[in-house]
Write a structure and sequence with these properties.
Blueprint: H1 15-22, H2 35-56, H3 62-73, H4 75-85, H5 91-102, H6 114-132, H7 136-146
Helix pairs in contact: 2-3, 2-5, 2-6, 4-6, 4-7, 5-6
Length: 149
């Protein structure tokens, strides 16, 4: 019998373990990943969570969905979210965020200040780290806190 999300209870959502098993991916020490690699995967995870939230609110024209998502995933919005959760982060989480924020990137956001861009990169690195560490529940908890859900 398949379990639904509603009756999972305190069990962890183990998406990364499932993907590693099904795709025959190696176990890699996530501490070996560069902060920009963590931000790369974190960007995708964050984007997927936000897209899922927007789509599940109801069917809409794609350009309207895109606008709604863009308003939440752009660097200024991510910086705002980070400041709402900053006090809730553990020391380890804050250290991962700072590694991402301080990483030397050769790109920058088109419509964001350097501070907004670096803060967003730090947040994405944290999300990537937590995701790869099989802490998707913590990712969702932080996003909910940051979005006041």
């Amino acid at each position: 019998m398949e379990k639904s999300i509603d009756n999972l209870g305190p069990e962890k959502i183990e998406l990364i373990k499932y993907l590693k098993k099904e795709m025959n991916l190696p176990d890699t020490d996530i501490k070996s990943y560069s902060p920009l690699t963590l931000a790369f995967i974190g960007d995708g995870v964050y984007d997927l969570i936000i897209r899922t939230m927007i789509v599940e609110r109801g069917n809409a024209p794609v350009n309207k969905l895109h606008k709604s998502v863009s308003n939440l995933v752009k660097a200024p919005a991510q910086m705002e979210l980070f400041h709402k959760i900053e006090e809730k982060l553990t020391e380890d989480e804050l250290a991962v965020y700072k590694r991402g924020r301080n990483a030397k990137s050769f790109t920058s956001a088109k419509n964001a200040s350097m501070t907004e861009y670096r803060t967003a990169t730090g947040l994405e690195a944290l999300i990537g780290y937590l995701y790869l560490d099989n802490q998707l529940d913590r990712v969702v908890e932080l996003i909910k806190l940051g979005l006041n859900i």
